[in-house]
Amino acid sequence: MSVDLVVSIALAVGLAAAVGFRVFLPLLVVSVAAYTGHLELSDSFAWLGTPLALIMLCVATGLEVLAYYIPGVDNVLDALATPAALVAGTVISAAVMVNLPPLVKWATAIIAGGGAAGLTQSVTALLRAKSTAMTGGLANPVIATAELGGALLVSLLALLAPLAAIALVILFCWVAVRFVRRMLRRTPDSSVKPVAND
């Protein structure tokens, strides 16, 4: 496997993982990079680098970012974002993998791209659900800000250093899963009833 192929796949998976944090922001980063000539896209995805796509993605990103700061709406968005992240992760992966046979590109995009997006989206949705249960949603804006920062950081890092972006996503998922498991262990088991003293 050539170095260029490894870097291309790492770029695709890194961007797809960023989609799990925010669906539209990584697509906007790719659109800006393609529009300014800093990123080559597959021929069938050249539309991502057009001014119209750039404007539409700016609006969609702004609405998505704001919606995650509205209590209750953020949890509803998580339910909608999971299938959207799988699709967007596949699309963004296929868009940036150039000069690959269609079968290899789409298999990688669906399995690795969609999988990476689904994994990060599932972890962030789990964190938000736990935050909602523990704080009544008061800590959710902190999680929304962290997700926004994560989406931007991983997207830019994927463009500059794709392998580092993947390492960062793996580290995030590992830390987040450990955190959630620790929180679950601290939650008292409501099914155990105290024994009454006679």
Give a nutshell description of this structure.
This protein has 198 residues and is mostly helical. The chain has helices at residues 3-19, 24-35, 51-67, 73-96, 102-135, 140-160, 162-186.
Question: How would you characterize this protein structure?
Answer:
It is a single chain. The protein is mainly α and 198 residues long. The chain has one domain. The chain contains seven helices and no strands. It has helices spanning 3-19, 24-35, 51-67, 73-96, 102-135, 140-160, 162-186. It is globular. The termini are far apart.
- Rounded mean pLDDT score: 86
Low-confidence runs of at least 5 consecutive residues: none
Strand content: under 5%
**Helicity range of the residues?**
over 70%
Layout of strands and helices, then pairs:
Elements (H helix, E strand, L loop, with lengths): L2 H17 L4 H12 L15 H17 L5 H24 L5 H34 L4 H21 L1 H25 L12
Helix pairs in contact: 1-2, 1-4, 1-5, 1-6, 1-7, 2-3, 2-6, 4-5, 5-6, 5-7, 6-7
Name the descriptors.
198 residues; mainly alpha
